[in-house]
Amino acid sequence: MSDKINDLMPTAAHTAVSGDGMPPKQKTRIQITNEAKILEAALDVFSQDGFRGATLDRIASAADMSKPNLLYYFKNKEMIHIALLAGLLDIWLTPLSEISATGDPTLEIGGYIKRKLEISREYPRESRLFANEILAGAPHIGDFLRTKLKKLVDEKAEILQRWVDNGRLAPCDPRHLLFAIWSTTQHYADFSVQVRLVLGLEAEDNSYYEEASQMLETLFLSQLIKTHDCD
Amino acid sequence: MSDKINDLMPTAAHTAVSGDGMPPKQKTRIQITNEAKILEAALDVFSQDGFRGATLDRIASAADMSKPNLLYYFKNKEMIHIALLAGLLDIWLTPLSEISATGDPTLEIGGYIKRKLEISREYPRESRLFANEILAGAPHIGDFLRTKLKKLVDEKAEILQRWVDNGRLAPCDPRHLLFAIWSTTQHYADFSVQVRLVLGLEAEDNSYYEEASQMLETLFLSQLIKTHDCD
DNA sequence: TAACATTTTTACCGGCTGGTCAAATATTCA
DNA sequence: TGAATATTTGACCAGCCGGTAAAAATGTTA
Predict the structure, then answer these.
(1) A166 class by beta-carbon count within 10 Å (0-12 exposed, 13-18 middle, 19+ buried)
(2) What digits encode the pLDDT tens for the residues A68-90?
């Protein structure tokens, strides 16, 4: 498995030769719009069916393009997938990297949860794309998880641990606290079909996000953070 | 999409004609072992790659069988998938159905979380199979979610709501409390690759489940349940 | 052992898969 | 304009896909 996300952003086939001596050549109008069209379509397909389950034919037809035309912009199926993942990982990491050691635990964690839930609501397909990639064994982003993500989690876990040590946060394993935040927030994107069916909502009805926000605040903040009025 | 889980348990092709007047004919030794072998292999493949991403060739080769031989025991790809899902849903629902209105909230919820986490640890592939099915839009179990699961959740949510009303449980939306429990517990199965890579663990190392159990207890019980020594 | 039922294999099918190629068509710009 | 470049198309390919048919092999039982 290739497992290289870095500098594999989408480029038309003829300009995609990275590593050679050529300057990267700026993109055409058509190139920009078509790459965007392809990525949009591919996101729909990959996020539903995963890498293996997705087909170029379906992506092409969703993008309203012929398959060879699609392959003019992306070298192959894998490159489309990698381009999507690369775009996603930024969105993914930013909120975590914004947790500040100097801030207030309640505000920092609360803000993080809120942003994660917003992302879940705004980018549900990206969330499902990510989930599919992990379920498949992370063939494309294993390196990223092992290195960059781990490093960032280690950093932030240290901050959380300090808060625990200072008695500003209920004693808990910081890494698992992050897992709990990830899972609960992403659940509303990844399992949205189940959530809707169980709640009896129509497809596309996102109204449950308000309740979700309330629940997560109750779960993670009202109680977890040590600001009881009783001590 | 067929969407019929009920009475679609695996049967050899020649005995699979349900709905006719024939008695169900008991299974051969060979039939029993081979169906088990197939389901075992299929669980590996489907849980990694989803329904569309999985292929009969890979399932057959994982089961150490020829493809036609495999199709002697299951009518087609979909039937194998449905058989797996049917087997899974029982495991899935049982713990929830065991939540008792007459029990103590802490013990009931705590026990439920514990059992869900145990299932996540014991049946990670089943959990991923389920996750894949939901990500794909629940084409095979949509009816089940809309009817049986919803009904059960409605019942149990009512119990939880009564506990909230009686002040025995922190005010929260019961349904979303269940979602939070589902997501956090299943996360350790569905995203195990990510969990391991972030924690720096080797593949197959399940040691994190102890920490997880501790975390979930802290998150859901120590704080959420209203048994503070301060009131 | 012979008759019968079950299981496995071999050979095969049409359609889809990811992907290539060269020719045809648009677009850009000197 | 026209030459150069960028884009799109259609025809095609080998291999895989889910699945079938029938014969061969194996197991069961009277």
Answers:
(1) exposed
(2) 999 999 999 999 999 999 999 98
